[in-house]
Structures are given as C-alpha cells and as structure tokens.
Amino acid sequence: METELSADQVRRLQLRAQGLLGAGARRGGVPGMLRRLGAVQLDTISVLARSHELIAYARLGAVGRDAVEAGYWGGHRTFEYWAHAASILPMEDWPHFAFRRRAFLRRGWRWHKVSPSVCDDVRALLRSSGPLTTRDLGGAKAGGDWWQWSDHKIAIEWLLDTGEVVCTERTGWRRRYDLAERAVPGRLLAQDPDDTACLTHLVREAGRALAVGTRADLADHYRLRGDQVDAVIGETGLVPVAVRGWKHPAWADPEALASEPRGRHATTLLSPFDSLVWDRARTSRVFGFDHRLEAYVPKAKRVHGYFVMPLLAGGRLIGRVDPAREGRTLVAKQVSFEPHAATPARAERSMAALREALETAAGWVGCDDVRIERIVAPGDL
User: Fold this and answer.
1) Comparing C-alpha atoms, which of 345, 274, 277, 371 is closest to residue 317?
2) Predicted model pTM
3) Adjacent-strand bridge partners of 375
4) Which of 151, 210, 246, 280 is spaced 20 to 30 A from 300 at the CA atom?
C-alpha cells in the first residue's frame, strides 16, 4: 500500500535530509555535509562569503572559513563537475558522472570547437608541470559582452568536460586542473559504469538528499532529464508515496521514512544557491515561499534586493535579507518578512529569529555591528 504523507511531514523530512533539523547535521564536518547533500553548487557572487561557504555555515555554524575550504578541497576528497550546476562533488561519485562525460564526447564540443593540437599541448603541460590554473595555461581575457576564452582555456575546459582532466581545488577562485590519472584514485578511475548504472545511482542519491521528491525534483538535483529518471526509478530503491496537496506522484527514501524528524531547527540565513531552495518550484510547493535571485534583475526592478538570502527559522522560510558589509558592520539593506511571520502572534518570534541570524552571521564574517536599513512586512511589525 502506498504511503501517504502530509505536506508538513515532507517539509520536516526535507529539512532533516538537508542537514537543517536535528543533531546529525554536524556529523562529519564539511565532508559529511557534502556526502549528505550530494552536491554543493558553486557561484562567482560573493557578498558575505562565497555560496559554498554559506552552505556549510548554515549547517555547521560558525566554523572558520579556512577550515571550510580545507574541508571541501583537502586531500583530494572532492572534485568539481557539472551537477545541478558547477558543483563540488564527493570523489566517490566520479565514476557515476561517466554518462555525462560520454555525452560530451558524443557531441564533440560544448561552447567552442576544440583544437586537437592545443589539447595535446595542454596534456603535455599538465603532465610536466601540473596541477595548473587557467592563468598558468594562458587563461581568458575580458572583452565585449562575454568572456573570450583563449585556445588553451577552451582546451582545458573540454578535457574537464570529457574526464581527462579534473578540478580538485579552487585557488583564488580559479580552478586548479590536473590529469584525472593523477588526481582520481585508481580504484575509482578503473570503474566504468554504463549509463543506466550512473543514472540509477544519481537518482537514488537525489532521493536521499531530498528525502521526498517528485520526478521533476529528482531530475533537477543533478540536472537529469525526466525520461532518464523514468528509466531507472524502479531500480533505485526509492518508494512511491502520495503527498497530500501535491499534483504529481512522489518517491521517498525509505530510510528517511523509518523515523520521525526530531531535534533543533536551524535559525540561519541561506545562500540563494542552497540546495534547500535552488529549485523554485519545489521551494514554493514545500515551503510556500517564492524564491528568486535578483542579482541578474535590473536594479530598478528588484523587489527584495541584489543577493537575497532566505531566512530560515522554526523549520519555515519566514523572510528574506539583502545583506552587505561596510567595514566591520553587517548591513541588512532590506528585510522582507512573509505574511505568516508578521502576524501579531508570531511577530516577536520572527524579530528574535532575525536578530539571531544577523548577529551570528556578523560574527562569522568578522563584523561586530549590525545595521538594518529597511524592514518590509505586512501590518505593524
């Protein structure tokens, strides 16, 4: 008989799976967190910190930022590749992205045509002098409306796409590339699972990271196609569930269903690229929260601000903060509360959660003062 879940149960199950509810969130530090999430998205924007740092902070608290970087990149435990977007991934998942590497090879190019002779040059440079950054290889220059890649940059990215080269670290936000034969442990490099095995593993991992998800949710986690999910869902071990109020069928991780989520809820600001909220449709369905990154929206058309960070408290997304730094002051340029968080019954708790989130974040990034410039909320809050 198919299990039926309430929307509230799903919300709590997802929070626990995402490391934002319960005592298990801190287990294993950054590497343990990455294994639970499956992928941590990278992004160039840095306001309080880089997105991947904010994701660790939300779950682990005020861990030193050097320790966060070491947890991600130290000891060749991880690699960077295309998952939900450019993401940090556990090295153990290297074999399971073979399906994507093969797809690049079949296509023959990604954004640029690739020169075989330049690829040979890059291989030789890496073999003799690697690991290397794009700057070491000739890099890219800024020009016109888009980055104009050098031939060596085109070649190294193609070799990354197809698996000859791997990025196991970022240095000053530049990828550091090495030959896969040197950087990937031999036991993993020797594995060559077929596409079905790769997809089965990744859909299973998506289900574990989300606890409960629809076909679209499971596909979005690693940017798979719906038909790819359909082809393997029966082999993943995920179980069909019905969620009251959801229009589409869903699947759950049976381990997630084995116990009720318990423990302390995190009160924190979330990166807009956090895997709890990176899927707008899922965030709306699970939390009733319309999440949108406005960094790429013209300033005059922004509603909530440039780098809007959802505010999580009590297991709900209660508002948004647009942060900045001025010297040693963390500035909340705008705080926008959700209507449910601004009712007379909840207003005091919402303000206390905002204060906790801002003061904790300020201390983590080395600020000793907080200033709120504007609060937007219904009613008199």
Assistant:
1) 277
2) 0.93
3) 335
4) 280
